[in-house]
Amino acid sequence: MVSRIPFWIGFRYLAAKRRNHFISFISMSSMIGMTLGVAVLILVLSVMNGFDRELRERILGMVPHAVLYKYGGIEDWEVLATRVEGLPGVAAAAPLTRLQGMLGYGGRVQGVMITGIEPGAEDRVSILPQHMDEGDLASLQDGEFNVVLGELLARHLRVSLGDKVTMMLPEATLSPAGVLPRIKRLTVTGIFSVGAELDSNLAVINLADAKKLGRLDAQTQSLRIRFDNLFDAPRGIWEIVGELDTSFSGSDWTRTHGNLFQAIRMEKTMIGLLLLIIVAVAAFNIISTLVMVVTDKQADIAILRTMGASPGTIMGIFMVQGLSIGLVGVMLGTVLGVIGALTISELIAGLEKLFNFQILSADVYFISYLPSQLKLMDVAIVVSASLLISFLATLYPSYRASRIQPAEALRYE
Q1: Which helix or strand (DSSP H or E) is residue 345 part of?
Q2: 1: pLDDT confidence band, cut at 50, 70 and 90?
Q3: How far apart are the first and last CA of the chain?
Q4: CB-based contacts of 235: which residues, under 8 Å, 6+ apart?
Q5: Residue 205's pLDDT band (boundaries 50, 70, 90)?
Q6: Which residue in 38, 142, 334, 344 could disulfide with 208, CB within 3.0 to 4.6 Å?
Q7: Better-scored residue on pLDDT, 350 or 311
Q8: Cα separation of 16 and 317, whole Å?
Q9: Can you give the C-alpha Rg of the chain in angstroms?
């Protein structure tokens, strides 16, 4: 029965009307501050998780995990791909040829990365086939010089299926009229959209067409490799190079997008720590609230002490009161944060459509929408840290209350 006294009196103090309304105001401010801090922390961490996920699934779903090069190009890529796929950790391999160039249509010109692929093998190493808005990769037939464009690139050039765009490569060709760039007309047979920067600068053609346009002697420039775990790529590609002869070399996604990935990870950590300060500020309000309550309840404390309440009981009363404020704030913040994390993407998309503006542009950022991914581990860490801060905030005021001497408290009553 004695062990229930701190809870009973602590909850009674929390619900009772106070003569000093300022204490009630500070108490409510503490609860609201804790709610907002926890909610914002969960929401921001979920958004950062979303960016991390989109980088892995969309950007690195389009960008090769690793690329295997050979001096002079790779002949008979099927044999090499079969050999590489037999190595541990390798999921699939497919040919890849890249050309730098420009596409023009109707007076509009855009620099692009022209990528030669084998349409039948692309779905094993890329998410491109799953993100075709119009047309199909099967239209990229050898000798037809068809091209599949990113959605933003097609919009910039103002082309649609069936239009013929002019491809210009930087290599010059001598002619009776002088030095001319290499030019080829390509027919647009597909448009893809992955919601990333690649939509604005990537054009895909058939591997054999890329060989002809690039005047390559070998079948393909390189072999694109997808690993079971993309984080194994830096180590795995060099193990593959070690299995082959010295004419091979390799590269992996950390060379091109590693800094971005590390930046997102670091920003998530730093933003989480900074936002945790909001929770700490709310905890300081809990300290202020309890200090004022202890001062206001000195007579009550003295009476309880004279009735036999131990210092531990007095300390428990005010710890219950402070933890109740923190617990309610954390619970409300968790509910709001989880709801916000689950709906923020649709909410922002609706606002963009309603007001006809775009928060994230693929021309500036690596994706064109606000992603969010709620992780239970993040929620657990935020809730645990917030409750711990709330608990620590109750210790000093509660200890101070337990040290009040009855005679001193009742002297001026």
Answers
A1: helix 311-355
A2: very low
A3: 30
A4: none
A5: very high
A6: 142
A7: 350
A8: 14
A9: 32
CB burial string 74-113: b at 16+ within 10 A, e below: beebeebbeebeeeeebebbbbbbebebbbebeeeebebe
pTM: 0.69
Question: What letter represents residue 106's amino acid?
Answer: G
Both tokens of 240, joined, read: 């593959």
Got the DSSP string for 88-157? TTEEEEEEEEEEEEEEEETTEEEEEEEEEE-HHHHTTT-SGGGGEEEE-GGG--TTT-EEEEEHHHHHHH
At residue 365, what is the residue type? Y
Query: Quick one: CA torsion of 188, 102, 196, 144, rounded to 10 degrees?
Result: 30
- Is residue 369 helix, strand or coil? coil
DSSP for residue 195 = S
| CA distance linking residue 58 with residue 367, whole number of Å | 9
CA dist., res. 98 & res. 224, Å (int): 11
**What is the tens place of the pLDDT at every residue in 387-413?**
888 888 888 888 887 777 765 655 555
Gap between the Cα atoms of 167 and 102, Å rounded: 6
Q: Sign of the C-alpha dihedral, residues 208, 209, 211, 215? A: positive
Q: Tell me how crowded residue 219 is: count the other CB atoms within 10 A of its CB.
A: 18
Which residues contact residue 20 at a Cβ distance below 8 angstroms, ignoring those fewer than 6 apart? 292, 296
